[in-house]
UniProtKB/TrEMBL annotation:
It comes from the Archaea. Pfam families: DUF3267. The chain crosses the membrane at residues 23-42, 62-83, 121-143, 149-169. This is DUF3267 domain-containing protein. Keywords: Membrane, Transmembrane, Transmembrane helix. InterPro entries: DUF3267.
Length: 211
């Protein structure tokens, strides 16, 4: 048991667990909402990319089939690099910096989710308030979302399409963060949390004030 946990005046700790179905439901809602709102710039950006690639392929003498495979490969590879090497690290870094500013001892790592290892930042601390948890959870969704919307407002064509894809995918990948955020909204604001390592795994517990 971590030092100073549970705090005085609170109930015995309970394990905090997420619902995979709950996270999936939030993801579906986010995919739908942001898929509809970003459809037009994504469609326009894709059309711009296709036209640029067709012109380039023709200029270097590529025949139809290699041009198609090359265009798809570059598009898919570009998206992979964008999200795995740029957006995801920035997303997790925002979690980390917010937790660091709140003195919550953030730590990088991975967790199993839907049969793959998902990068994550967790605050290895005790006595974490609901407000601190919510700030850490929502920051990447809001920060990257606002930046993407800003780029969308001042650009068009391919750049706007990429910004729209970033907005859509980052929003969908924030499903777990928003799931926890929505749960916290319904909890007693005096609830306290603790994240600590036990038997090689990260355990999250919470307590509420005694009545």
């Amino acid at each position: 048991m971590p030092i100073n946990w549970p705090p005085e005046g609170h109930t015995e700790p309970k394990k905090y667990e997420r619902s995979e179905r709950g996270v999936f439901a939030v993801m579906l809602v986010l995919i739908g909402i942001f898929g509809v709102t970003t459809y037009q710039p994504i469609a326009t950006g894709t059309e711009t990319y296709v036209l640029l690639w067709v012109d380039f392929a023709a200029s270097i003498g590529l025949s139809a089939l290699p041009a198609v495979f090359g265009g798809v490969a570059i598009f898919a590879g570009g998206l992979f690099v964008l999200f795995r090497r740029v957006v995801t690290p920035i997303h997790e870094r925002i979690h980390y910096e917010v937790a660091r500013q709140l003195d919550l001892n953030p730590d990088y790592g991975y967790e199993e989710m839907w049969f793959h290892k998902n990068p994550r930042v967790i605050a290895l601390s005790t006595g974490i308030s609901v407000g601190e948890n919510m700030a850490m959870l929502i920051a990447p969704f809001v920060g990257i979302g606002l930046l993407s919307v800003g780029v969308l407002l001042v650009s068009n064509g391919l750049v706007a399409g990429v910004a729209a894809i970033v907005l859509w995918v980052n929003s969908a990948s924030s499903a777990q963060d928003l799931y926890h955020y929505l749960r916290l909204l319904r909890m007693d604001p005096e609830t306290k949390f603790a994240n600590f390592e036990r038997d090689g795994e990260i355990r999250t517990e919470y307590v509420v004030p005694e009545q």
